[in-house]
Design brief:
Elements lengths: L5 E3 L9 H7 L8 E3 L9 H4 L4 H13 L5 H11 L11 E4 L2 E5 L9 H19 L3 E6 L3 H10 L5 E8 L5 H8 L6 E6 L3 H13 L1 H6 L2 E3 L5 H22 L4 E6 L4 H12 L3 E8 L4 H8 L1 E3 L19 H8 L4 H14 L1 E3 L7 E5 L2 H15 L5 H10 L9 E5 L7 H8 L7 H6 L7 E3 L3 H13 L1
Parallel strand pairs: 4-14, 5-6, 5-8, 6-7, 7-15, 9-10, 9-14, 10-13
Antiparallel strand pairs: 1-2, 3-4, 11-12
């Protein structure tokens, strides 16, 4: 097997291998890294259908990793990454009314981000030990990515992590999951702005190439290709489980998304030949993505606070990866469009995407869906998953089962559950314990210079 090759969506970063792509995160030309080729695996689907989740992960990841990590080592990294998951199937698929819920929240921070970030943390440690280098991870979070990233790298050798979150704009539980981690290599930053401000600062920091190089910066946001890669696995896994259960030939998958990373993993799975008829993109009132897939216009607006805060995003950092394929893998066209978007806050793309339907679920609709599924089907949805189920119900098919990705445990969003049901029924002992722990965090403006100064001063100590 040859080494997998990675290129930038903007075409101005030299090709590189998998390990270098993991450490680089955001490409040096401001674009996002992608594999030069996506493998077609249709001839392997029959053999993959009976594999366990960890076995399937090895088969899905191996072609994208190539020789950079030996197969036996990759197998060990995967096994160690899922040891802290509490469900024997890792990712169970549960029938709930007219849909099948793919539960992605059985990891250490009770969010789907654990599936990718536990693996990424182990990959970081492996690569750093092999190369004798150090890494300073910088990330921005709308909630779950931060806590999952911190849980993945806390205490690991040769790594420091700096996570920005919007001050008082994540749920209290999400804030506690980050700020109660007091390991010396963990640094929490609350920025006095929105998540989009955090993403902007993050890109500005990574585009400062001398600073990025001097301080050996790496990314854990879904700009890091390894994050997306790990998420591809559960699309195959969910499809196989439901096809086995129903006898269907394929499935459709609904994905609540704000940053386009999770659904882009599904898009790659579809291009690989996964038995998925179409993807259904679900947003809340912050619906830049739903509007794009329905009108072709990608135009940012104001951020509206909702009961699904992890999706309160206007600028989706992974959208550029999809745009690369939408433009026929033409890096020059992508570069032109992204420059136009940076200037005007808007681009228009002709044509339609047959593989993706899209819609939005409002706060009121989300609450109604939580009530309906709890009272009629005995299933408790978190508000993000409820956004997905709300939209999925508009796209049900008589002959194609519908999977809905459940992105977080409902106890992480207790206020939204109480608002919907009038009762505090969403509890988890691990989250209850957080409220008694000490915290550590610094509050800073959403300014590139301020964050760089903090990173510089902290590492100087």
């Amino acid at each position: 097997m040859n080494s997998a090759t990675y290129i930038s969506t903007r075409g101005e970063t030299p090709p590189m291998g998998f390990q270098d792509s993991v450490l680089m995160g955001l490409a040096t030309d401001g674009g996002l890294l992608l594999p030069q080729a996506i493998p077609n695996v249709t001839d392997r689907l029959a053999a993959w259908r009976k594999l366990s989740y960890a076995e399937l992960a090895l088969e899905v990841l191996q072609p994208f990793v190539g020789d950079d990590i030996p197969r036996a080592t990759l197998q060990d990294l995967i096994a160690r990454s899922y040891v802290a998951f509490t469900h024997p199937e890792l990712v169970p698929v549960v029938p709930a009314g007219p849909v099948h819920v793919v539960e992605l929240f059985h990891g250490p921070t009770l969010a789907f981000k654990d599936i990718a970030l536990q693996l990424l943390g182990n990959m970081f440690e492996h690569v750093l030990a092999r190369t004798g280098s150090r890494l300073n991870v910088v990330g921005a979070t709308s909630g779950d990515t931060g806590s999952a990233a911190i849980a993945a790298v806390r205490g690991k050798a040769n790594i420091h992590i700096f996570i920005m979150h919007p001050h008082k704009k994540v749920s209290p539980v999400q804030e506690r999951q980050m700020t109660t981690i007091l390991d010396e290599n963990v640094h929490n930053i609350a920025i006095t702005g929105t998540f989009d401000d955090g993403q902007r600062v993050l890109k500005e920091i990574f585009n400062d190439i001398p600073f990025k190089t001097q301080y050996r910066l790496g990314a854990v946001n879904s700009v890091n290709w390894a994050r997306v890669l790990a998420q591809i696995v559960y699309y195959f896994h969910g499809a196989f489980r439901v096809m086995e259960r129903t006898g269907a030939a394929d499935v459709q998958v609904c994905v609540p998304t704000g940053n386009f990373g999770d659904i882009f993993a599904g898009y790659v799975a579809l291009r690989m030949g996964a038995p998925i008829r179409r993807l259904i993109l679900a947003t809340n009132e912050n619906d830049i993505l739903a509007r794009f897939f329905n009108t072709g216009a990608y135009q940012c607006g104001d951020v509206y606070p909702t009961t699904s805060p992890s999706m309160d995003i206007q600028i989706a950092s992974n959208f550029e990866r999809y745009l690369y394929y939408r433009m026929g893998e033409d890096a020059t066209a992508v570069r032109r469009l992204m420059q136009e978007f940076a200037v005007n806050g808007r681009i228009q793309v002709a044509g339609q995407e047959p593989a993706i339907a899209a819609g939005r679920g409002t706060v009121a609709e989300t609450a109604a869906t939580i009530r309906k599924y709890y009272r009629e089907f005995g299933y408790l949805l978190d508000p993000h998953t409820a956004v997905g189920v709300t939209v999925a119900e508009r796209h049900l098919s008589a002959d194609t089962p519908t999977l809905c990705l459940a992105t977080a445990h409902p106890a992480k969003f207790k206020d939204a559950i109480v608002q919907a049901l009038g009762a505090d029924v969403a509890r988890h002992p691990a989250l209850d314990a957080l409220m008694k722990l000490p915290t550590r965090c610094v509050v800073l403006p959403p300014d590139c210079h301020a964050i760089q100064t903090y990173i510089r001063d902290t590492l100087g100590k």
